[in-house]
Amino acid sequence: MMCALFQQEHVRLSSGVCGTNKRTVCRAAKLDKKTHAHVCIISKQCTHPKWGILLGRLDGRTANFTGASNLPSSFDNLTVLEKKFRDVRLNTVDLVALSGAHTFGRAQCQFVTDRLYNFSGTGRPDPTLNSGYRAFLAQRCPLNGNGSVLTNLDPTTPDTFDKNYYTYLEVNRGLLDSDQILKSAPEAQGVTAPIVDQFARSQDAFFKSFAHPSMGEIRCNCRKVNDG
Ligand code: HEM
């Protein structure tokens, strides 16, 4: 899911040399119906932010197996996350803004239990986790419980696309470690933490950054990247 939605970010088009080439766009859509399905899910679920979506997806200009298998993990530290985003030409603002997709959806307990019971091998909970939220999560995800049980990524508005993901990071109620470190990690200070602060203050700023066009293109000829 994360992977498809991650690609979804790159489906957005405002204009493009080949944006009106319907045959090319449709062929891409057939190749990647799964991604398109996620586009529909996002468009239906939220009233904002809005951006123009043509059917299909943007083709990468390079292909590489290692890159495709090197997706970000919720157990990555901030330096690794930044690098993985940078490797696909997404910057620090993109990292914080796109992580805001966790304003809706759920995650399995297996991604949270380390934070609750054995953070970084300490045998203790993650000190950046709000104690009330930790108690709530411990009920939902007991030690040695079923790791597939789902819990909301956004504690109160899990089905709404809003800025609450960030307001919860401000009060140490991010669900995944990769969420909370954007605000709380020592190396986040002066880097990603101020961006979290900005999005927590301004939903408009979050929506604009989330919908800001990024890399990729629609190919004129499916066999090669566009000239220029
Ligand atoms: C910083 C990089 C990211 C990491 C480490 C990450 C990690 C995760 C994890 C571990 C889950 C829970 C999966 C599960 O329990 O099976 C999840 C769910 C989700 N992620 Fe991410 N993610 C990242 C970025 C993104 C991006 C860029 C998007 C979209 C733009 C996104 C959208 C979602 C959504 C919507 C869900 C909920 C899925 C559902 O409810 O079925 N994530 N993510």
From TrEMBL:
<feature type="binding site">
    <location>
        <position position="162"/>
    </location>
    <ligand>
        <name>Ca(2+)</name>
    </ligand>
</feature>
<keyword id="KW-0575">Peroxidase</keyword>
<dbReference type="InterPro" id="IPR002016">
    <property type="entry name" value="Haem_peroxidase"/>
</dbReference>
<feature type="binding site">
    <location>
        <position position="154"/>
    </location>
    <ligand>
        <name>Ca(2+)</name>
    </ligand>
</feature>
<keyword id="KW-0479">Metal-binding</keyword>
<feature type="domain" description="Plant heme peroxidase family profile">
    <location>
        <begin position="49"/>
        <end position="226"/>
    </location>
</feature>
<keyword id="KW-1015">Disulfide bond</keyword>
<protein>
    <recommendedName>
        <fullName>Plant heme peroxidase family profile domain-containing protein</fullName>
    </recommendedName>
</protein>
<dbReference type="GO" id="GO:0042744">
    <property type="term" value="P:hydrogen peroxide catabolic process"/>
</dbReference>
<dbReference type="GO" id="GO:0020037">
    <property type="term" value="F:heme binding"/>
</dbReference>
<dbReference type="InterPro" id="IPR000823">
    <property type="entry name" value="Peroxidase_pln"/>
</dbReference>
<dbReference type="GO" id="GO:0006979">
    <property type="term" value="P:response to oxidative stress"/>
</dbReference>
<keyword id="KW-0349">Heme</keyword>
<feature type="binding site">
    <location>
        <position position="103"/>
    </location>
    <ligand>
        <name>Ca(2+)</name>
    </ligand>
</feature>
<keyword id="KW-0408">Iron</keyword>
<feature type="binding site" description="axial binding residue">
    <location>
        <position position="102"/>
    </location>
    <ligand>
        <name>heme b</name>
    </ligand>
</feature>
<dbReference type="GO" id="GO:0140825">
    <property type="term" value="F:lactoperoxidase activity"/>
</dbReference>
<dbReference type="GO" id="GO:0005576">
    <property type="term" value="C:extracellular region"/>
</dbReference>
<feature type="binding site">
    <location>
        <position position="72"/>
    </location>
    <ligand>
        <name>substrate</name>
    </ligand>
</feature>
<keyword id="KW-0106">Calcium</keyword>
<keyword id="KW-0376">Hydrogen peroxide</keyword>
<dbReference type="InterPro" id="IPR010255">
    <property type="entry name" value="Haem_peroxidase_sf"/>
</dbReference>
<comment type="similarity">
    <text>Belongs to the peroxidase family. Ascorbate peroxidase subfamily.</text>
</comment>
<dbReference type="GO" id="GO:0046872">
    <property type="term" value="F:metal ion binding"/>
</dbReference>
<feature type="binding site">
    <location>
        <position position="157"/>
    </location>
    <ligand>
        <name>Ca(2+)</name>
    </ligand>
</feature>
<keyword id="KW-0560">Oxidoreductase</keyword>
<dbReference type="Pfam" id="PF00141">
    <property type="entry name" value="peroxidase"/>
</dbReference>
<keyword id="KW-0873">Pyrrolidone carboxylic acid</keyword>
<feature type="disulfide bond">
    <location>
        <begin position="109"/>
        <end position="141"/>
    </location>
</feature>
<dbReference type="InterPro" id="IPR019793">
    <property type="entry name" value="Peroxidases_heam-ligand_BS"/>
</dbReference>
